[in-house]
Amino acid sequence: MAPILTVENLKTYFFGRAGIVKAVDGVSFSIDSGKVLGLVGESGSGKTVAATSILGLVDPPGRIVAGSIRLAGEELVGLSDSALRDYRGRRIAMVFQDPMTSLNPVLRIDTQMIEAIAAHERVAQHVARARARDALAAVGIASAEERLSAYPHQLSGGMRQRVAIAIALLHRPQLLIADEPTTALDVTIQSQILALVQRLCSDSGTALIWITHDLAVVAGLADRVAVMYAGRIVEAGPVEDVFGRPLHPYTRGLIGSIPSRQQRGGLLRQIPGMPPSAANRPAGCAFAPRCSRADAACAVDPPVVAHGAARATCCWHPHIEPETVV
Amino acid sequence: MSQTRFGRATSEFCESRAALVALAVTLLLVVLAIAAPLIAPQNPYDLARLSILDNNLAPGSRGVSGTFYALGTDDQGRDMLSAILYGLRLSLFVGVLATCIALVVGTSVGAISAYVGGRLDAALMRLVDVQLSFPAILIALILAAVLGKGVDKVVIALVSVQWAYYARTVRSAALVERSREYIAAARGLALPQSRIVFRHLLPNAFAPIPPIATVQFAHAIGLEATLSFLGVGVPITEPSLGLLIANGYRYMLSGDIWISFFPGVALLVVILAVNVVGDRLRDVMNPRLRH
């Protein structure tokens, strides 16, 4: 089956006064219908810019300079804004990080839901309202009818995120991009939201890109994971393989820096150094200055190398132990 | 929460006795202005009813036909109390109209400017800079002189002077709101641009506007009075407060000061009351100024 979304060699640069910031610098991935891709990386690694590029919402001075984004075979890069509007909300939807700010504080829930429906369909007010109510019920909001006439500030954070998810899924999109939607929530609410989105997406066959820096979330939720560092995907593969036997030193460092019970009382392990500034990234492997395995070879850009059928990494010295070589 | 916030603002507003008095005075003046045709002893616009024999009578005197003139008469024999009530009506009307139009124009320009950004934003804001770098009275005077006399022309002149304040204020507030996620979410849902600007961005950037509008309203009244005083404002047949002052100005040195004095007092009270209300509004609505 052809993947529903294919991103190839996507490059989104920001042309600032201080120079070109290569926020996304040659990213490729694809995702099948009904599957979950975890896009992992630390702050500033380009995850969110990659997501906004898919929606065509990169603000000036940023723009997509190269690459291809295909939704169900249709090329999105280079489409006019009015052509892209037909995709936004209807075929590709997005859920944002902070439910405190992703709903408009001065508009009631029903207003916001009905206008989202009206953006793509001509429906009568009462029909749209009924659909909004059903959508709220579907995301597990009790007494949906009452909540419809509430303002966002009258709802809790978890409830607001449910509303945001309900809005995103109103048009049964083919692709849902969730940009750290549980970061701002309690752990208990977090797992509820995770389970909810997972269930809704697999029910409707919606492909889900879950952007996060929380490896635990990805481990429990995603089918595949792509690890981003400094605007590139350094490692991608099925979630068990990547977390079980990380190939890239950065992935290994990320997993190693998760506090665990075994090391209680000891020093936490961390990756030395800081991520490079996106404005003047060194030539060659961006991770090399922080990498214990780096040597002279790393001054040249590492190619993306496939490891087996489903995995790929871009590193000159991946952690390939003899027993894991396929 | 918005209910209680409104309630809190109201009770805080009422903590200042001066503001309460000013609010009461403002409301009283508005009622007087609206009810002027009902309560004024005379219709000052109806020249047939005026008696030229009663001209320049001092306050408290009686005319030839026995009419009592509480605030005296002007050189046409016009009852000053009636003229002031009608003048107040016109001044407030011009002020309200100019403020409302300037507010709609200015906030729309500010919100669009912030949302679109780029060159349009730069161009509009340079226009605002140019506008604000000239004294308001100078621009209004030039416009009024070019356009000619008339209530509509005065309103146009006042709007052209005042829209820039709203535009700049709303733009700066909207720039902050622009970067919030609900705007990105609205764009992600492909809502119409006009809806994003006017239903999402503008209402959220509107908070600083009411105090500014109040103060600008007082400015508008003062500016209209100045224009009329200088003879480029409202027509002489429908005198506003400023024109009444100008009419009596000639008689100041001959001792008939009431013709200018009482309209002047009325103007002063209006502007002072509205300004005090506006100041208090600003204090109450801007949490950063709170101590």
Task: Tell me what the structure shows.
Chain A has helices spanning 47-55, 81-85, 109-118, 125-138, 144-148, 157-168, 187-204, 215-221, 239-244, 249-256, and strands at 5-16, 19-31, 36-40, 62-71, 74-75, 92-95, 175-179, 207-212, 224-229, 232-238, 305-307, 311-313. Chain A is of the alpha/beta class and 326 residues long. Chain A has a domain at 5-91 and 171-261 and 268-276: Rossmann fold (3-Layer(aba) Sandwich), CATH 3.40.50.300. In chain A, strands 6-7-8-3-9-10-12-11 form an eight-stranded mixed β-sheet, with helices on both faces. In chain A, strands 2-1-4-5 form a four-stranded antiparallel β-sheet. In chain A, strand 9 (224-229) and strand 10 form a beta hairpin. Chain A starts with a strand and ends in a 13-residue tail after the last strand. Chain B has 291 residues and is mostly helical. Chain B has a single domain, classed as MetI-like fold, CATH 1.10.3720.10. Chain B is built from twelve helices and two strands. Chain B has a two-stranded antiparallel ribbon with strand order 1-2. In chain B, helix 4 crosses helix 9 and helix 6 (136-147) packs across helix 7 (151-178). The longest helix of chain B is centred in the middle third of the chain and has 37 residues, at 80-116. The radius of gyration of chain B is 22 Å and the shape is elongated. The two termini of chain B are 22 Å apart. The mean pLDDT of chain B is 85. The A-B interface holds A 52, 55, 57, 59-60, 85-90, 93-94, 96-98, 101-107, 115-116, 119-120, 151, 153-154, 164, 167 and B 1-2, 117-118, 180-182, 184-192, 195, 199-200, 203-204.
